[in-house]
Amino acid sequence: MDAGQAAARRPANVSSDAEMTLQSPELPSTNDYQRLGVSHRVELHAGKQSRCFSAVLDGQKVVVKLTDRRLTDPAILRAKMRAVETVGGALSAVVMPIRVAGDLVQPIGEWLMTATPFVTGDRLDISTPHAGRVMGQTLARLHEVMAELPVVEIPPVAALESDLPSSEQPSSEQPSSEQPSWQLLHGDFSYKNLIASPTGLRIFDFDDCGYGPTEYDLANSLYMVLFDSEVNDSPSRYETFRPSFLGGYSHSAAKAVDAEPVDEMIRLRIAALGRWLEDLPNAPIGIQTSSPEWLETLESFVASHRWGKAP
Fold first, then answer.
1. Which pLDDT belongs to residue 57?
2. Which residues of 26-56 are buried (b: 16+ CB within 10 A; e: fewer)?
3. Residues 92, 93, 94, 97, CA torsion sign
4. Model's pTM, two decimal places?
5. Contacts with 207 (C-beta within 8 Å, 6 or more apart), sequence order
6. Which parts of the chain register pLDDT below 70?
């Protein structure tokens, strides 16, 4: 998750299902940056497979993100950035990528570079009903715009890749109208990837975007708050967030959210975490590189839901 946009300090309590470090490649040289017109770098965040810096590009303050090129397909990352560029043209809440030396994805040393404008603002307090409501409303608007995109060569979100039959997964050869339950999703829509700016709520970090049913984005947002609430022993956080988030989405989408498929997607998301824990070599890099103590925390969370505990 990209904490660079807000340049906020990480809270002391845990708040994701990937608490780890990755042995990163050597950072690009100053000459590498200068060649692309990037200067005045200050590191904001070092994540599981990426590092974020504030910087100046063509006189504009930006956030530069470096993604380990060993772990990312450049063609897929470029397709994602193009999709976000299109979505951002239709929805001002989206923090659009900036082209660096004419391209949305620039190889630089052992990394792939992307950039966005530097946006200042505050994190949402998800313990309040207001935060859940505005997040739900924003996600509904994002889904509406994303639904208008033509199908592109981007895979399903990671948790769904092995859970749904291939006949239900989208193909660039099929028009999107033939698969109404699938569309492009944000894939990591959480308060960490939102900033309450002076001009309104802004959405960033679309690196995990992929195809799936809209219920998955809803479920994944709920899953992340559920995880935080249980691991940090704060059940009221989830109890407050869930109804306000779903209510905000329903209001903006002008249709009621059916809780049953959303809850099924939460269970599917937890099951995906369980599968990754049982097969670490094929798990997302953040889980592969987790400490033994953090793996134990994740396993405990999965075990507490293994027998169909309601989310």
1. 97
2. ebbeeebbeebebeeeeebbebbbbbbbbbe
3. positive
4. 0.86
5. 2, 50, 67, 77, 80, 188
6. 1-22, 48, 162-180, 307-311
Beta-bridge mates of residue 103 = 100
Instruction: Please choose, from the candidates 207, 208, 212, the residue with its C-alpha nearest in 3D space to the C-alpha of residue 168.
Output: 212
Residues 49, 66: Cα–Cα separation, whole Å: 8
Which residue type is seen at 85?
Answer: E
Q: What is the pLDDT of residue 118?
A: 97
User: Is residue 209 within 8 Å of residue 143, measured between CB atoms?
Assistant: no
Could you give the CA distance from residue 203 to residue 241 in angstroms, rounded to a whole number? 18
Residue 17 is predicted with a pLDDT of 46
- 228 vs 306: CA distance, rounded Å: 18
Report whether 116 contacts 97 (CB < 8 A).
yes
How far, in Å, are 63, 70, 96, 138, 209 from residue 111 at the CA level?
15, 8, 20, 32, 20
Question: How many Å apart are CA 189 and CA 204, to the nearest integer?
Answer: 9
Residue-level pLDDT at 170? 42
Report H helices in the chain: 30-35, 74-90, 129-146, 214-231, 235-253, 259-278, 285-288, 292-304
Separation in Å, CA 199 to CA 92, 93, 94, 193: 10, 9, 12, 16
Residue ranges of domains in the chain, CATH in brackets: 40-117 (3.30.200.20), 129-304 (3.90.1200.10)
Q: What is the pLDDT of residues 219-255, one digit of tens each?
A: 999 999 999 999 999 999 999 999 999 999 999 999 9
Confidence at residue 309, expressed as pLDDT on a 0 to 100 scale: 58
